[in-house]
Automatic annotation (TrEMBL), chains A, B:
Record field: catalytic activity: L-aspartate + ATP = 4-phospho-L-aspartate + ADP
Organism this protein belongs to: Anoxybacillus ayderensis
Protein name: Aspartokinase
Keyword annotations of the record: Amino-acid biosynthesis, ATP-binding, Diaminopimelate biosynthesis, Kinase, Lysine biosynthesis, Nucleotide-binding, Transferase
GO cellular component, one term: cytosol
Binding of substrate, residues: 49, 120
Primary role: Catalyzes the phosphorylation of the beta-carboxyl group of aspartic acid with ATP to yield 4-phospho-L-aspartate, which is involved in the branched biosynthetic pathway leading to the biosynthesis of amino acids threonine, isoleucine and methionine.
Length: 448, 448
């Protein structure tokens, strides 16, 4: 039995609802369905979630909000009208939104979370309604009813372990169960949302909880590409990827997947299939625990900009036990996370997302490094990009690094940093941000 | 004015003493001379320092030590006889040794340090004696008299900052001043030796203290080679190196220099010249603050075996602020120093000298990693070698990494790890220990 999750663009309007209904009902194994809020219908459209955030803002600022509320209901109205559904559901939706506003108008964080969550919640009700009208047994199941319990961190919920036991009981229910993505309930009964993109997380949690044979993630591309298609035109499509590869890729600039979403299925070894709602016949990309990587040791190339490097040097640094640990402690005290720490005998670099040094933080961090670590020199190198070459077969393949570095040399790109560990599935290269596209295209040429 | 330091092989016997005297007296600027203990005269000879350690052991174990004492004095006797020096100096040496034994026989650490130091001390007296006999004004100056004060850590002395002020006063003295290497005096008046190879340290401290224009380090090779001559036959000789390059190279397997010896001269920007006592006409290798590296971005290739890598992986590791810091804290608690920490998104490797995990340490470290960090996997990869490609010009040169990795591929050597930081003068490669010579030879081919 399968869990099928449909992203925002898959449920953006009536035509998409019809495609989704066809997909769900064409395979009896698709018993659990997770839906997002309506996404964009055309390029410059506003996503439902953004409308809802705007609505929450108006309410919080005590502004006239009715205009935005009308826009929200109008999006559902369009779907209801186009699908010729009974219009009672619109009253249910309107009443529900008004009730959230009345209940939480003086609790800004709660209001924001509740309104954001309503995008998925109402869409799930609509989908169940539609399937029933088509003659199928379909039930809306709220996350509370399903048993998705989370930590009480508005906008950043983490699933609580007891949820999985609760979710397993959904197997006893009949019909197609439609569950809204993106949120759960705290132990005290509040709606709390996952980080953005969190419908992927809900799908993954449900798949883990019910013990699905497959977690299908329906989106609007035929498959995952081996490189960002905005850098390389028509790049090759990936048939199969491992969890580890997917995670490395999605972390460094691949936007198909919210990069933490896979944890629940990864832990249980449930395979994931990324498919296209608009072309469900395409095989999609399978994400699995292991793959035969002899033919294609490299799975993909990811890249992201916005990094900087703090470079410190101190004569005889390597004789100072604890130097690296103390440098990392200073960053930790400031709540800064880092990506890599390449080091020489007497120097060490820490690569991190540049935005973390905003405002006063940079001055404080540098001050502490100079004063507490008594370094000879400290400097910050800005505008760096990281490029990750990812593949399970890399660690056992002679010549992978040679191909990559030759590509950089041919593209006349200077490599600022290289980082490759012993048991790793990726090789990291740091380059200047303005050289990243050139470098990625050169890497694509040699590997694909 | 120059400081000239002569290593053990340069002062091993009378013939070498003559060469050294010629070198010293051929340049009036050579006012300060630091000498080692007599080194090996032939391949299987015993160094004076090892004889003295054997002597100390006999005394400490209450064994008959007179036989070894005779051997020690016999080494000096040979030099005295061959140089036709007055034999009174031998009485001075014998009496001095006996006095040390009598004073320290029940303080094993002090006895060991005092006897070890006597090798250099008596040789300095001998050299001054010889120069005077040749008609030059030459004075033996003990480290106490010179003002070399050190921390009271037997066998591991660190120079105290006040020494430099004291040493500066030596400029006021007349004649050639002969100072024994390898030891200083603690504030309470005890002889304390530097780490082994510490005559280089004495020379460097003296050069810094007297503000020398040049620190000449006389040894038994014409110059520093760009790669270990036991791996590559007749490798190219280096005319010029920077301190940073020298330090990276000497750290990873280059034995010309004790790798911390350069700090005092480095701090004051005093250039170092490594020269050959047996061929003083050869220009030697200059170690300087900066060099023009456009022609030769890579200075040398060093390698060393005996490393291992602790590899840990944990899903979502990079979201855990403080993970890396806590892993390093565990190692620090065990007094373990590490070389590099290449990392991926969900894994981190720590490369360290294998010997540090001896006995119970490995079990304790692994236990703590599993229990405190809750990792998914931890393993130790053994028998690794590190290869450092070192050069000031590397960070600004496109294609350096490409050449290196292509060399590895051609030699069919798998690269286990790569580490190159942003402002670094070296690129580190980790390979299996049994592949290191093959890899170094391949690198030599591409760079030299």
């Amino acid at each position: 039995m399968k869990v099928a999750k449909f992203g925002g663009s898959s449920v953006a309007n009536a035509a998409q609802f019809q495609k989704v209904a066809n997909i769900i009902t064409s395979d009896e194994a698709r018993k659990f369905v997770v839906v997002s809020a309506p996404g964009k219908r055309f390029k410059d459209d506003t996503k439902m979630t953004d409308l809802l955030i705007a609505l929450a803002k108006k309410v919080i600022e005590n502004n006239i909000y009715e205009g935005v509320l009308v826009q929200v209901v109008a999006r559902y109205d369009e779907i209801v009208t186009d699908l010729q559904l009974s219009r009672d559901i619109l009253d249910v939706i309107s009443a529900h939104l008004q009730q959230l506003i009345d209940t939480y108008h003086d609790q800004p964080e709660r209001l924001l979370d509740a309104l954001k969550a309503s995008g998925e919640d109402n869409n799930a009700k609509l989908m169940a309604h539609y399937l029933r009208q088509l003659g199928y047994e379909a039930h809306y199941v709220s996350p509370k009813d399903a048993g998705i319990f989370v930590t009480d961190e508005p906008g950043n919920a983490q699933v609580l372990p007891e949820s999985y036991e609760q979710l397993a009981k959904l197997n006893e229910r009949s019909g197609i169960l439609i569950i809204p993505g993106f949120f759960g309930y705290s132990r005290s009964g509040h709606i709390v949302t996952f980080p953005r993109g969190g419908s992927d997380i809900t799908g993954s949690i449900v798949a883990a909880g019910v013990g699905a044979e497959l977690y299908e993630n329906f989106t609007d591309v035929d498959s995952i590409y081996c490189v960002n298609p905005s850098i390389v035109e028509h790049p090759c499509q990936l048939k199969e990827l491992t969890y580890r590869e997917m995670r490395e890729l999605s972390y460094a600039g691949f936007s198909v997947f919210h990069d933490e979403a896979l944890e629940p299925v990864y832990r249980r070894g449930i395979p994931v299939c990324v498919k296209n709602t608009n072309n469900p016949e395409a095989p999609g990309t399978m994400i699995v625990a292991t793959r035969d990587h002899r033919e294609r040791p490299v799975a993909g190339i990811a890249s992201d900009t916005g990094f900087c490097s703090i470079n410190v040097s101190k004569y005889l640094m390597n004789r100072e036990i604890g130097f690296g640990r103390r440098l990392l402690q200073i960053l930790e005290d400031e709540g800064i996370s880092y990506e890599h720490t390449p080091s020489g005998i007497d120097n060490m670099s820490v690569i991190l997302r540049e935005e973390q040094l905003a405002g006063d933080v940079e001055r404080r961090v540098l001050h502490r490094i100079v004063n507490e670590l008594r370094v000879d020199e400290v400097s910050i190198e800005r505008d760096l990009a990281l490029i990750m070459v990812v593949g399970e077969g890399m660690e056992r393949s002679v010549g992978i690094a040679a191909k990559a570095t030759a590509a950089f040399a041919r593209a006349n790109v200077n490599i600022e940093m290289i980082n490759q560990g012993s048991s790793e599935v990726s090789m990291m290269f740091g380059v200047k941000a303005d050289a990243v596209e050139k470098a990625v295209r050169a890497l694509y040429e040699v590997y694909f």
